[in-house]
Amino acid sequence: MTDAAPEQSFSLQKLFLKDLSFESPMTPDIFTQQWRPQVKLDLNISNNRLPNDNFEVILKLTLTANVEDKVALLIEVQQAGVFLIKGLDDETLRQVLSIGCANILFPYAREAIDSLALKGGFPAFQLQPINFEAMYMQQMQQQAPANH
User: Fold this and answer.
1) 47, part of any domain
2) Which of 10, 45, 46, 63 lies 20 to 30 Å (CA to CA) from residue 100?
3) Number of structural domains, the chain?
4) Alpha-carbon distance 65 to 26, whole Å?
5) Is 145's pLDDT higher than 70?
6) What is d(CA 131, CA 129) in angstroms, rounded to the nearest whole number?
7) First to last CA, the chain
8) CATH code at 104?
């Protein structure tokens, strides 16, 4: 056969911090209280197509730690990367951007959050790994039209 499938390629070209925010509105008083925060983590993944089969993928994590219904700590990290991705069909490309790239970016975002918390005088949060594949599948199920 002469119809060869296009060559597939995936590689990280550049890793970078796109945006970073740290707020601790209750300092220094918070340091005299017992540290038992209610922690909420929001995340979002977005991507932008760039020239020459490159994609910018941005993993945005927002950690909010509340003590007695007041924000004690707010950290927002946008960890990004440029990935070269070639030869994938549309569905596989969506999966790679949402799952594969996010899995690469997450440890860097998690480390940035821990580092900022420590520099701000707080304990590290040691965020648990995230199953980006399960998140992607759930998102696809929610977008699928109801079969009624």
Assistant:
1) yes
2) 63
3) 1
4) 11
5) no
6) 7
7) 43
8) 3.10.420.10
